[in-house]
Amino acid sequence: MTAAVSDLRRCGRAWVFGDEVNTDEMFPGFAMKMSIAEAARHMFNATRPGWPDLVQPGDLVVGGRNFGMGSSRPVPLLFKELGVGGIVAEEFNSLFLRNCVNYGLPALAVAGIREKVAEGQNLCMDLPNASVENTTTGEKLYGGAFPEFILEIIAGGGVLAKLENDGLLQKASSEG
Prior knowledge:
Blueprint: H1 3-6, E1 9-16, H2 23-26, H3 36-40, H4 51-54, E2 60-63, H5 75-81, E3 86-89, H6 94-103, E4 107-109, H7 113-116, E5 122-126, E6 131-134, E7 139-142, H8 148-155, H9 159-165
Parallel strand pairs: 1-2, 2-3, 3-4
Antiparallel strand pairs: 1-5, 5-6, 6-7
């Protein structure tokens, strides 16, 4: 395991959401033309107004079944902008999970997680070992592990960042 992959451990306060949370709820349509920084200020605008002002760097989002259903909006960028350390859900929508990998946001599917976590409790997510510990209660749960190359992509900041850092893709110019 590389040093970067071993750094995929995150601890923070839990924010608990339900089943079938839609990407449209997370990234409202009116915010689609805004910068990522500005759009992040509108996450969950209709369902949890003010949430971006409450979340702290390192906090973890806990979701239910089919978390991230809907369109392919770049929601992981908004979570990262707000400093969210990762997402643990009962089950992810497959497109949303791919976007988490593509944008370098740690995400782990763990059956039974919502039954074992209350909002505000402290969690530690260990992506390389596919585990989540509720440090408030001491309970530990396990999910499905990612292969090493997926962990390396996430640790590298996502697909494009990893390819650029590995010299396999020319870095995008900041001009024009």
